[in-house]
Design brief:
Elements (H helix, E strand, L loop, with lengths): L1 H6 L6 H11 L1 H10 L5 H26 L3 H28 L18 H10 L10 H26 L8 H15 L3 H4 L6 H31 L7
Amino acid sequence: MATERASCRNRWNARGRWLVFALAASSIACLLADFYQLCPMRIFTPFIFLPALLALLAFGALDRWRGDGELWRAVWTGFVAGLLAAVAYDVFRMPFVFAKQWGIDSIVPPMNLFKVFPRFGAMVLGQPIEQAEYSLAAHVIGWIYHFSNGATFGVMYLAIIGDGARRHWACAVLFALALELGMLFTPYPAVFGIHVTTRFVIVTVLAHAIFGVALGLSVRRLTRLFRLGLAPAAP
């Protein structure tokens, strides 16, 4: 009986959700710690962020094995929904990035909205942020880091709301906009040489609203599918 009760333990409570939030937040904390000269990304990434990510997955696996699986399903849902939202976010920005190549610059203002990605990679590799030509490694690592932020934002959002099926998708929009507005007040624009113009603010707010819509809808859909037993099993 004791074993049976342990196997049904619910870890998706206030304590478990706070722990999940903190572990997932290590992704964006990696960048913020560098901004505020607390710890460079080349140190934070391998020694804090990656171990925290592994700990998050291990915590979820423990819940799947010895608990009721609710925490594991929430972490899995957050990761997938966050990745889907990040893709929607980037797809929305692509016409601005490729306006000249696509011949639509008379309609859509060209904006180099992807310029930060190789800089992320350079920071992780311990290289200068500004370079004449970034290495393939800097580009790849930068994009991976970008999507890690999207995935972990999804997990953080679920840790905040608790039940993905009961919250309206608009809550995710508010969450995404809060993240964006918060970043504007950090050294982010200055570090990456971003001019915070009215146009930039409008486009980035719209992009984050798209992220929020995709996140909110994906979370609701995946949560309901899991409860119906229709979602693919998490690995």
